[in-house]
Amino acid sequence: MINFDEVLAEAKQRLADIHENSKLVELKAKYLGGSSVVKQAFKDLKDLPKEEKGNFGQRINIFKNTLESLFEEKEKELEEEQIKSKLEKEKCDITLPGNTYDFGAKHPCQIIIDELTDFFIGMGYKVAEGNEVDLDLFNFELVNIPKDHPSRDMQDSFYISDNLLLRSQTSGVQAHVMQEAKGQGPIKIICPGKTYRRDDDDLTHSHQFSQCEGLVISEKASMGNLMKTLDLMAKHIFGEKREVRFRPSFFPFTEPSIEVDVSCFECQGKGCDICKHTGWIEILGAGMVHPEVLRLNGFDPDIYQGFAFGIGIERLAMLKFGIDDIRKLFNSDITFLGQFRKE
Asked: Taking all residues of the chain, what is their mean pLDDT, rounded to a whole number?
């Protein structure tokens, strides 16, 4: 017969030496499992005389409940010890300063694109996007630059095949939009994006650069509308104090064509090295859409007319922020880019 008091004393002593959950599980199986002393006690109960079974059965239940309570207390004790140990290991000094993270900064070219987009959307323009790989048809021919046109010599392009190239200008987006319109105006879009030309990397040129071209086609678009739009745009980017000058020029996709200058931000128009002592800095080209471009893209030039302009994003960024080397815009220099962080 089992001596309940001796077994409980033994269990308490062995529990006091347990410090691991795995050992506790093993010990619990010995005292409360399928082959445990408790099971053996119930087997002994069967062999007792009927008059002794009731009293012995009560003692077994008390014994069993006491063991279960002992093991539950030990489980809680081990759990508390584990939590305490973990807290000690992961203890931190809350008086130390917290971790700080620097906020990023917009790239100067993205700043210019956002400012242009905000300005032109405010004037009712939509933003159109296109593929950076496009057909020669859209990049050149539909904007009045056929294969034998001398202006192609000025744009040494990256061709992938005979008729497929990395776009050298975002004018192809304008051609796509005009084709989709099927000769029905009005159209009022800007198309910012990356362009590619085989160009020597120097302080002011790169094989990759960004443009923001604009196109307006309607029955009443005029050179006056164009000039006022560009005057407002230049002052939006460079400030109200900037003077704007228009000069006649030539582009195969516009007629008449103009170049747009702003007064030098360094010398205020007096003349310095930055503006080559002219007092002016060229910022973009523009003009009225050539009638042939309208015809090529399905518009009747007797009904519709339009104007277009092309803005060099890097050029505006360099002028606005006083950046002396275009390569700084592509080097991912965190120190350089950090200058454009808004506090």
From this structure: 85
Average pLDDT over residues 39-64: 70
Domain hosting residue 19, numbered range = 4-89
Q: Are residues 73 and 121 in the same domain?
A: no
Helix (H) or strand (E) holding 196: strand 187-196
- Assess if residue 101 is contained within a domain: no
Q: Kindly report the three-state secondary structure assignment for every residue of 7-23.
A: HHHHHHHHHHCCCCHHH
* pLDDT, tens digit, 9 for 90 and up, residues 308-334: 999 999 889 988 888 878 788 888 888
Closest CA to 282 of 204, 208, 188, 174: 204
- Please report which residue ranges of 90-210 form alpha helices under DSSP H: 108-122, 136-139, 171-181
The one-letter code for the residue type at 35 is S
Q: Please report whether residue 16 resides in a domain.
A: yes
Looking up tokens 């050539």 gives 290
In a domain, 94, yes or no: no
In this prediction, residue 177 has a pLDDT band, given cuts at 50, 70 and 90, of very high
Distance CA 22, CA 265 (A): 78
Q: Are residues 215 and 262 in the same domain?
A: yes
What is the signed CA dihedral for 158, 159, 165, 169, rounded to 10 degrees? 40
Instruction: Give the whole-angstrom CA distance, residue 149 versus residue 141.
Output: 10
Q: Which of 33-37, 74-78, 149-153, 229-233 has the lowest mean pLDDT?
A: 149-153
